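Write out this protein's structure.
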Amino acid sequence: MLKLFRVDLNDTLADTAAPRAPRIIARAEHPVSRSDISPNALRVLYRLKEAGFQAFLVGGCVRDLIIGRHPKDFDVATDALPDEVRRLFRNCRLVGRRFRLAHIVYGREVIEVATFRAASAPPPSEEPVPPRDEDEIELDDAPSELDEPDEPAIANVHRVQDDHGRLLRDNMYGSIDEDVWRRDFTVNALYYNIADFSIWDYVDGLADIHARRLRLIGDVETRYREDPVRMLRAARFEAKLGFELDAEGVAPIARLRQLLASVPPARLFDETCKLFLSGHGEQSLLALRRRGLFGELFPAVERYLQGHPGGAVEGLLLQGLRNTDERVAEDKPVTPTFLWALLLYGPIAAAIESLPQDRWHDVQAIEGACDRTMREAQQRISIPRRISLGVAEMFAMQPRLEGSRGRRSLRLLEQSRFRAAYDLLTLRASLGLASAEVALWWTTLQAASFEEREQMVAAVPASAAGEGSGAPRRRRRRSRSRG
């Protein structure tokens, strides 16, 4: 059941925190320098300022600059409306149907510009529209499905909440004094003012950065109920920044973590990728398990890990995430397919081992075990079909990699999933779950020249190559029907 109602702006502010003047930190008192800011972000800030608008860097980029990290992207907040931003920039495109955001495109870099929002407004994915004149929307007018974004009843209310308090929609523009209260953590609520290079701090975010402390803005339980994903974000920031969530932020998680079941599965997929593919996957896993959140995302995986504490599969998951973090640090590509093969390795292995032993290396049996595991995981998280198929192919190739070292091996090298399957094989071998000798053979084969590959293949005995005695097989002739 939905709660749809109109709210006054003053009521909205009263629900979170009373507006207060910011502490303005002069340029001489903070470490943020324009030399560390993207030139394109500076270009956007200055053009907005010259047009008479307020313009601030905001969010994680300011936090990262203060602690000496290079931000991945730069976000701008302004009092200019989206259409006003578009008139200033020829390379601007507006995105979002309910809350318009401006994307200023400079080649591969995109500077996101958001208009200040009122307190408790949603994140950019929850996009409001201007209000209509009616004072109230009756509950009977609400659509039956939340996933229909174009339903007029949902699109024209100020705020929509479900029975648990999760904020589904909030559609009011505001000022910077209001915008700060809709942000989640104090360390993400710092504004860098291009007008005088000062930092505006409404919520003691700078002190929390120096104390390496994560603290939510406003009433903690209310903020978690508005958006349960904030619990996942807390774990992600703990992993990424090495900060510690304060006691008030930790306390309600045990009672409220089941609210993650109400979050759309597609959004949980995106959050999972942010947790594990951003360079801090190993620490994200540890933080999620420490807060009891991992089991809400992956109940089957958590059950397996609890049933096999400190086992080889847990070691494989941690080492695989460690390897992924190293690739991110080296600016090498990482794939969600390999991540999901790591996360679901335990349940998939258990599903295979539940079959008769003579079917453990059967390709159809392996693919069936992967399919059953994926369907169970998709009850919580939406997994694209390309990923589920890729995971099944990786697992189905494991017995072929372990058994084929003859001429068939040269054909395996050409398959699109070979590299991911090979990486999984070497990871298994490093933990004693596969033959180290076989993994080394494949490593050597890839680095060899064409002539060397031919020699390696010829040197493998037929029995070890998994290709039988090598005698030619007689092709069975199909009988013809005589008319």
